[in-house]
Amino acid sequence: xxxxxxxxxxxxxxxxxxxxxxxxxxxxxxxxxxxxxxxxxxxxxxxxxxxxxxxxxxxxxxxxxxxxxxxxxxxxxxxxxxxxxxxxxxxxxxxxxxxxxxxxxxxxxxxxxxxxxxxxxxxxxxxxxxxxxxxxxxxxxxxxxxxxxxxxxxxxxxxxxxxxxxxxxxxxxxxxxxxxxxxxxxxxxxxxxxxxxxxx
Length: 200
Description:
Layout: E1 4-13, E2 16-21, E3 24-29, H1 32-37, E4 44-53, E5 58-63, H2 66-76, H3 83-92, H4 95-104, H5 118-138, H6 151-162, H7 167-175, H8 183-199
Antiparallel strand pairs: 1-2, 1-4, 2-3, 4-5
Helix pairs in contact: 2-3, 2-4, 4-5, 4-6, 5-6, 6-7, 6-8, 7-8
């Protein structure tokens, strides 16, 4: 398995970056966000990769971060979502925005991506909500506490933990918010407060 490639950018297009490493040019299919993040031609770049092998094709995909690669893995595990559709979604969503939309159950966000209809978007949220929760567990993060305010607070806690915040950091911020707010708004307000604490 090829985990990552570091080398010189030979060429780049909106969804393809070729990196030369050890005299070999690796053509990596990418999201538009990764292609934009990669340096100019002749500059050094690092891409985290995923190799897919099918009966009719072997393809290498490259990502600017491990987080984006993780989102790609989750998306391609959804029934009906192939690598092409996954890259289209990741061209429109950063890993943080992707996690927030899934955690908040906001499937309509995904319908904004060309080729993703309402049924497919709903399936993404339905199939990935549990995987987002499992990500929290596998990273060794504490389980979300049970809030008396209900499910919205629990969803916000889970989403913020997926983004790397500890339960201790998040609990105090969420406790000061109105539990009747939608989970997406709770997440947004929490990120504002957490950012103030980090950079204040």
